[in-house]
Amino acid sequence: MVSLLTVESVSAGYGNLQILTGVSIRAQPNQITVIVGPNGSGKSTLLKTIAGLTNIYTGEVKLDGKTVSNLPPHEIARLGIAYLPQTESTFTNLSVAENFKMAGYTVGHQDFEDRTKKALEIFPKLSGYMHTKVSSLSGGERQMVAMSMALVREPNTI
């Protein structure tokens, strides 16, 4: 069986600063894959590498068996990988509904409505905040908005 996501012997970093050395991981369809480690061990860099936001020096990243290693981030996103940064993952000066629209700008109207409904079924608390600026929400509520934004794009990997 082909893994949904495969990272094979990846060494990556920022400019000349190598952070990851020989990292390999496989994520299977319909399973949760967890990356654990202490602060500074490269967890965030690994996720950024998968999303195309770092320099890959060696190794490769594959999605459904196809190499995506050096594609630009927007192409990787179109292929179904959603990256949620730890901070600043929403547009705080926009409402919750506007954040959803920003996330779904490439999605057809009916699909957008259906996906928004699904996201609100997962995070029903957000239904009451659709016209509220994200800046006035709690940190946990902002994370719900960020996750919902990813869900609106209907990725195969978050």
Task: Outline the fold blueprint.
Elements: E1 5-14, E2 17-27, H1 43-50, E3 55-63, E4 66-67, H2 73-78, H3 96-103, H4 109-122, H5 139-152
Antiparallel strand pairs: 1-2, 1-3, 3-4
Helix pairs in contact: 3-5, 4-5
Structural commentary:
The protein has helices at residues 43-50, 73-78, 96-103, 109-122, 139-152, and strands at 5-14, 17-27, 55-63, 66-67. With 158 residues, the chain is α+β, with helices and mostly antiparallel strands. The protein has two domains: 5-78, P-loop containing nucleotide triphosphate hydrolases (Rossmann fold), CATH 3.40.50.300; 96-152. A four-stranded antiparallel sheet has the order 2-1-3-4, covered by helices on one side. α3 packs parallel to α5 (139-152) and α4 (109-122) packs antiparallel against α5 (139-152).
Major sheet: 4 strands, antiparallel
Query: Which structural class best describes the helix and strand composition?
Result: alpha+beta
| Rough outline | globular
CATH homologous superfamily designation of the largest domain: P-loop containing nucleotide triphosphate hydrolases
The end-to-end span amounts to 20 Å
Taking all Cα atoms into account, the compactness measure Rg is: 17 Å
Low-confidence stretches: none
Strand content: 15-25%
Series of secondary-structure elements, N-terminal to C-terminal: EEHEEHHHH
The number of helices is 5
On the 0 to 100 scale, the average pLDDT is 91
Helix percentage range: 25-40%
Q: Could you say how many structural domains there are in total? A: 2
Strand line-up across the major sheet: 2-1-3-4
Under CATH at level 1, the class of the largest domain stands as Alpha Beta
Quote the CATH topology of the largest domain: Rossmann fold
| Second rung of CATH, namely the architecture of the largest domain | 3-Layer(aba) Sandwich
Number of strands: 4
